[in-house]
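Onboarding guide, step 5: your first structure request.
Type a short instruction followed by the sequence, for example:

Predict the 3D structure of this protein.
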Amino acid sequence: MTNIRVSRTVEIPDLLRITRYRKLPELGPRILFFSGGSAINGVCQVLKEYTHNSIHLVTPFDSGGSSATLRKAFQMPAMGDVRSRLMALADETVLGHPEVYQLFNYRLPKDKPADVLLCTLQDMVSGKSALIADINNPMRQLIRHQLGYFLSAMPDDFDLRGASIGNLILAGGYLNNHKHLDPIVFLFSKLVNVQGTVRAIVNKDVHLAAHLADGRCVIGQHRLTGKEVAPLTSPVTDLFLSETMDEAIPTSVQLRKKNRKLIETADLICYPPGSFYTSLIANLLPKGVGTAIHQNNCPKVFIPNLGSDPEQLGMSFEQTILTLIQHIQSDLNQSCSFDHFLNFVLIDSKNGRYPYPISEELLTGLGINIIDTHLVSKKSAPYYDNELLVSALLSLC
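The system replies with structure tokens like these:
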């Protein structure tokens, strides 16, 4: 077998290519996203109209909200971002399963007493709840089984307030499958007909930690995002994985073979907008990710954030690009040209408001091309327009 790299002239948007994808999304391109959280869920809802083959490697390191309650009780990876991405890619047509979709998105009330919440959960397990009764077998039985497994394993002091039923079902399946996440994610995907592939980047109970410029060490994803606690007041100098939340104990986690293969066979690799460290860089920390990216000669594109990201405190555009490349390169034993890791930066300089000047000189020196095109519309400003962003990405495939 001979491997060659072919270049072509691209028109953005490539209307012919986009129309072709829309007619046959089952044969659409394998666009791979390194992400987490909900920042690109809107992109996903548009993308599934054009391809059912997109790949989403999602961080399982969330340490806040209801995910924290589950992680503390069962020493498990976070489920929330995986569930959120599955829902964004679920089939919403008449061929889908809206009653399952509704159940997986349902959260228990925050203002009800513990005994009422426990009865609500027990009614779901027994099949008495209206949310469960409307689901046809065998899906109803599968869901009840996973939820029942969670209920039997649930500690007596477990706080059900605000708990996502989808997260509890995933947790039950995780525990029921000997603490393996992939089997229940696969089942979940089938239940709601997910139009793409969603996987946690690793299946390990580890936490994000960061060294700051002022000498402090912060442990826990929720302490870095600026959403659940006050934003950082000192820039991040290093992000790493820690064995525990109680003490910074650096640990190494290996990328699984099946995820490595997804990276190596993607048609386009996208480093999308979102929380820079906890969503994007976090996905690059496992050993083997950089090597897998290096092995794939497909185009790689970075889409910088519009507006301010609390995690990028004090960062320039140059620092953002070099930090991204540094983390991709980190597990390689050889120096490589930057175009093995990043080929394009996708921006809209006319309509987009970036937190720093975009340096064309820097990118030219690194051999990286700027694609400056229409990505922000009047209806979407100050954010990216999901339709325009998807059109640009599809045109590069």
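Each response can be followed by summary notes, for example: The chain has a mean pLDDT of 93.
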